[in-house]
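Input record, target 12 of the design panel.
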């Protein structure tokens, strides 16, 4: 198969290590990966702020960049959910629909398409998993604790394949971190308090690292950790799965 690697703009600008790890991990697993160099923002920030009518240029460019791949994979649940639910183009409606059906968040692609059962990875640290809301409630990569159903977590199942890792149990495992994209700007005080609560749960259980599928959430918590003078670090799940 040939996969188009979609790297969200904030990962490209601030956390390129997550993008590189995603590429290397997929290649280790035998996937042919292509990175379209003309890709830009998917349009999610505008759409989330009530300006979806201004995203037509983003939609058209995304379709042009990714229309010819078997699958599209991205290390970001929120951006993948945006493309799945909102990608549209009046000039190419069928192509847009096809793309929406073949884009995957990285851990979902590894578990659902590649059926990964083993990994040659090593990460001997205590790690807390942050279940991002878009991935959990929109893409269903993990179960929600308020529902009476068998518990599952695709990110956790992959992390359990990593040698030496010590996954901690949180008090509130699927609580929002408060980032919410533009929410952290328009509702700064609420966002910051939610982030502090989310960070405290990890600190109380002795985490050395906080990981997840969305660097946006991790970026929000990283700012709080740094302001608190904490030595706890954030790391995208791709970097752990690719470690060693």
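The sequence produced for target 12 reads:
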């Amino acid at each position: 198969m040939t996969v188009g690697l979609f790297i969200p703009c904030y990962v490209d600008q601030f956390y390129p290590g997550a993008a590189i790890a995603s590429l290397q991990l997929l290649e280790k697993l035998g996937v042919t990966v292509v990175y379209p160099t003309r890709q830009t923002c998917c349009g999610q920030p505008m759409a989330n702020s009530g300006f979806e009518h201004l995203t037509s240029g983003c939609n058209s460019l995304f379709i042009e960049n990714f229309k010819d791949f078997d699958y599209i994979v991205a290390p970001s649940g929120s951006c993948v959910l945006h493309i799945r639910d909102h990608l549209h183009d009046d000039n190419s409606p069928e192509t847009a629909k096809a793309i929406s059906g073949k884009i995957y968040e990285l851990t979902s692609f590894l578990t659902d398409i590649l059926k990964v059962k083993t990994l040659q990875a090593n990460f001997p640290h205590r790690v807390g998993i942050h279940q991002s809301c878009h991935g959990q409630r929109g893409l269903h990569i993990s179960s929600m604790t308020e529902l009476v159903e068998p518990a599952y977590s695709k990110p956790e199942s992959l992390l359990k394949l990593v040698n030496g890792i010590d996954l901690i149990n949180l008090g509130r495992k699927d609580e929002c971190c408060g980032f919410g994209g533009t929410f952290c700007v328009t509702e700064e005080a609420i966002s910051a308090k939610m982030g502090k609560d989310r960070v405290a749960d990890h600190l109380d259980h002795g985490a050395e690292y906080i990981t997840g599928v969305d660097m946006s959430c991790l970026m929000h918590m990283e700012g709080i950790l740094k302001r608190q003078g904490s030595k706890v670090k954030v790391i995208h799940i791709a970097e752990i799965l690719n470690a060693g």
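Residues 188-204 form the longest helix (17 residues).
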